[in-house]
Amino acid sequence: MKMFDTIAAIATPIGSGGVAIIRVSGENAESAAQSVVSLRCGKPLKEAENRRLYLADAHKAGDKSAVLDEALVSVMRAPHSYTGETVVEINCHGGWLAADSILKEILASDARLAEAGEFTRRAFVNGKTDLIGAEAVMDIIDSNSGLGLSNAAKSRGGALSRKIDAAREGILAITAEIAAAADYPEEVDPLPADETAALIGAAAKRIDELIAGFETGKILRDGIAAVIAGRPNVGKSSLMNALTRSDRAIVTSIPGTTRDTVEGVINIKGAAMRLLDTAGIRGETDDEIERIGIDRALKWIDKADLCIFVADSSEALTGEDMRIIEALKGKTCVCALNKTDISAKARLTKKELAEKTGIDIADIIETAAPENGEARGIEALESRIADKFALGKISGSDVYVSNARQRDSLIKARKALGLALEGAQNGAPFDLLYIDLEDALSALGEVTGMTVQEEIIDNVFSRFCVGK
Ligand code: GDP
Question: What DSSP character marks residue 370?
Answer without folding.
Answer: -
